[in-house]
C-alpha cells in the first residue's frame, strides 16, 4: 500500500525557517518524481516544488530562492527546506508522488 507521511510543520515567525519531510512507503520513491503542493484556506491547491529522479528541481516563482527541495532515495524521503518564510506561505503542505498524496501538514507563518 502506497503511503506518504508529511512531518515538520508548525508555527514560525516571519523570516524564520522550517524543514518539511515526506516519508514514502509501499513503493520505491526513486521511480517517481516527487513534489510538494500547498493549499491556503479558501484557495485552490497549488504547486510548490518538484524534484525528478535525476535530482533536477523546479519551483513556483513565489518560492524560488527561498525553498529547496531535496530527496534521499536510500531512505525513501523527500524534503522541503523553507527559509525566509512569509505570512503568505501559510497553508497545508502536501507531498505527492504520481497519483498518490500525503494527508498534508499545517505550516503557519505569523508573529
Can you characterise this structure?
The chain has 111 residues and is mostly beta strands. The strands form two sheets. Strands 2, 4, 5, 6, 9, 10 and 11 form a seven-stranded mixed β-sheet that branches. Strand 4 and strand 5 form a beta hairpin. It is globular and about 40 Å long.
For the secondary structure, the number of strands is 11
Question: What is the CA-atom radius of gyration, in angstroms?
Answer: 13 Å
Characterize the overall form: globular
Mean pLDDT equals 94
Low-confidence stretches: none
Q: Termini distance?
A: 40 Å
| Main sheet makeup | 7 strands, mixed
Structural class: mainly beta
- Indicate the percent of residues in helices: under 10%
**In DSSP terms, counting alpha (H) and pi (I) runs of 4 or more, how many helices?**
0
Beta-strand residue percentage: over 45%
Secondary structure layout plus pairing:
Blueprint: E1 3-7, E2 10-12, E3 18-25, E4 34-39, E5 46-51, E6 57-59, E7 67-72, E8 77-82, E9 91-97, E10 100-101, E11 105-109
Parallel strand pairs: 2-11
Antiparallel strand pairs: 1-3, 3-8, 4-5, 4-9, 5-6, 7-8, 9-10, 9-11
Amino acid at each position: 500500500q502506497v503511503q506518504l507521511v508529511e512531518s515538520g510543520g508548525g508555527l514560525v515567525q516571519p523570516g524564520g525557517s522550517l524543514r518539511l519531510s515526506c516519508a514514502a512507503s509501499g513503493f520505491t520513491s526513486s521511480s517517481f518524481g516527487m513534489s510538494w503542493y500547498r493549499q491556503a484556506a479558501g484557495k485552490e491547491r497549488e504547486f510548490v516544488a518538484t524534484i525528478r529522479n535525476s535530482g533536477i528541481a523546479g519551483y513556483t516563482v513565489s518560492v524560488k530562492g527561498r525553498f529547496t527541495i531535496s530527496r534521499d532515495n536510500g531512505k525513501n524521503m523527500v524534503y522541503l527546506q523553507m527559509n525566509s518564510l512569509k505570512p503568505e506561505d501559510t497553508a497545508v503542505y502536501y507531498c505527492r508522488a504520481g497519483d498518490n498524496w500525503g494527508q498534508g501538514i499545517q505550516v503557519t507563518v505569523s508573529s
